[in-house]
Write the structure tokens for this entry.
Amino acid sequence: MKKTVFLMLALAALLAGCEKSEKEDEVVKNTPETTDYSGTLTVDASSGTFDTENIRVSFTSTEKADSASITLYQVKFSPRMPLTLDVTVPGIKVAKTEKGAILTCQRVVPLAMGGEYPSYTVTGFEGEIVDDELTFSLNFGSTPTSYRGKRQ
Amino acid sequence: MKTFAAVMTTLVLISFLTAVSPSGDTLAQHLPDVTITAQKERIPVRLLSSAVSSVSQESMHKEGTYRPNALSQKIPGLHIPDYGASMTSTIYLRGMGSRMENPVMGLYVDGIPILDKNAYDFDWEGIQGVTMLRGPQGTLYGRNSMGGVLSISTISPTDDSDPAIHLEYGSSGTVRAGASFTSGSHALSTTYRHTDGYYLNTFKNSNCDPYDGLSLRWRWERRSGERTIMSNLLMADISREGGFAYGQWKDETLHPVSYNDEGSYSRLSVTDGYRYHRHGNTMITDATTSVQLLADDMHMDQDYTERSVFTLQQRQLSGAGTLELILSREDSDAAWQPQTGIFSFYKLNSMHAPVVFGRDGIESLILNNANSHIPTDIGYLAISDSRLPVNSDFMIGSWNAALFHESVFSLDRWILTAGIRLDYEGGKMDYDCMARLHYRFIPTMAADRELSVPYKGTVNHQRIEIIPKLSALFKASDAMAIYSTLSKGYRAGGFNTQIFSDILQNLTMNALMQDLGVYLDRQFVSVSALNTEYDPETAWNLELGARLHKGSLTTSLAAYRISVQNQQLTVFPPGLSTGRMMTNAGRSRTMGVETEIGWNPGRFRSQVSWSWCDARFVTFNDGNNDYSGNRIPYVPEHTLYVSAGYSINIKGKTLDLDASVNGSGPFSWDESGTRQEPFIVKVNGRIALVSDRWEVYLRADNLTDRTGRSFYFKSMGNEFFASIKPRIIMTGITIKL
């Protein structure tokens, strides 16, 4: 009898331990969070600088919120381009500040058209989030590009 | 609508009360010979205020008329080009018609309406004759009779005709064998036809249009007492054929037929119609009901080239039921002859119509099109599939209910007719389409990705048509009558199914681009399913005519003007389109003159049928071009048939010598009138030795082997023509048992 009670207590303690462990994980775990912005994309193309209004950008932080990816929807890098693209810039480092975050990235191959797109390798990425505004600048290949948008 | 209903109700009541009012005469005095006729009209054909053509059994036999398209030109203004396959049955009549969907001519066999145009073209055997009512006949016949109604009468058990068999053999290994006989309450006829085909497909080095078909007709007829007659007609046709003998028009030259994929058509058509005809004391009751089944399967190389661009299959299984009840006055001598009727049908068609793009089609129609919009420095799209199926399944229901009345008043030398029909028609189409492919964008994608594009939904429509008719006939003498008619007809609306491959193709490209995150400034544009419905076409006909019958001479003359609203025309969407679609083109008008002259003194016989028709768009802008004022394509300006024959007695036998010419044209092949065809005449001849019990003959069609083009269309921007059939010589024997 004592042996049975002991085993049951041990099982209960084990289950309680497991429960606690799951709760601890929940505290640590950060689900990826996506925030949409709408704003103006400025491209310094060889033919001149041109702005495109109402460009949607999604900012998606990773689980630990120390890095993020940015997806620019339906953008073109030359007014003569006969199409627009969805382009994702992955691997952006995020440093939190009081009002938002500082965004940096040295060099990364963006994702477009179903895979990596080295022709538009991103360099010199700098940006920040202050309150509900996202700004960043970068070079898509040799094309300087910047963005300023408001949270939607 | 309330007024209409009130008028109809009043007419029904009056006609009923008149019908049931007591008559002073006994039944025996008035009881007519009870027969079933193919026509709905209550007065003899010669007194109709309408243009009427009749072709006798003997004439059809001599001319080798055993399919509807052989009536072309023999009936003024009728043009049924012989091309494609049996399902084609494109009919032009009085300037109206179109390549696809609903016909402008109603077809009745022993009073049974044939609903499906795919079943119009069948081999005839045991046919007594055909009668064609030309011009809109919408009041009595309803939908799809705006150009006219062709009524076929089969042999009846009461005919006492001799059993007969015949056998024909001739050009292109053509064999035609048939038999017909009557016994007791039954009349049976059957025919089989085989041909090796007339057109060589140079790619396959074999004829592309062989044909094998078997037709069976069984008519049962039974009297019940003096007043009632019942009949049942069972028709079954089964055939398997090639077809689609289209040569490409390139460098101002018509090239031989040369395509690589399958071109075939198989069909099983079964129709059973039951008729009940009763002479009551005061009223005649005519009831007709039928069930109609059609199962067919078409395979078509839709690019008609040696490349594997794309193919179309269209497999249908349709069933339909019809019901008609007509009440009319029994006293045929009365001055007022009213008839009131109801009609309804329901038809359900299950259609499987996949379009399959071959490797050449994937490259030329899809990849080239897509990659032309993508800068080369970004990359290019590749599809690894060797075949890209675009599956389309449709379930199409259509239904109709109609109430009609027609009154004929005989006033001395005048016969006045007034009629009206309220016709409701509805339709519903469920579509379930799917395109699936494996693609890769190079250089960004390392492996293929599967993309599925479903497209499902329902479209439906409902319409009400009011179809009036007024006419007057004046009997100038016993031999001559003059008439005038104002009548309306309509051709039902429907759904475009063939355009769905085009819709799916564009949806797939847009979905693929979206899947890639690439958005072309010029999206792949197509019509949507909502645009696949087209409206009914209606026609108002004003006609003046005269007919004379004196001795061995019969003549008729008709002049008409028809205004067509919402004319249905087949158009090809712009660009490298794979689909065809019916559209309501706007308005058109047709003016024409038709005449028939028959003179048969003694052993000589002759016939002339001629029509002139000027059919033009009043307004038609397809979005790209304005075709107002242009000729309506495919409609011949003239149709002509002239025949002459003489019979010589030789030792108790008869030698028949017959010759004829028939022709049609000129044609415009397209809305712009840039492609045209001159008037084409064919010469035909026949020589026969006839005894009481047998006949042997030699018949030649297109004796001079005249070349010409019978049809035109575009596919993928390429132009194609079908050619008229070459010289065909047949020899045959008929034996009466």
Confidence is low (pLDDT under 50) at residues 11-30 of chain A. Chain A touches chain B through 15 residues (CB under 8 Å).
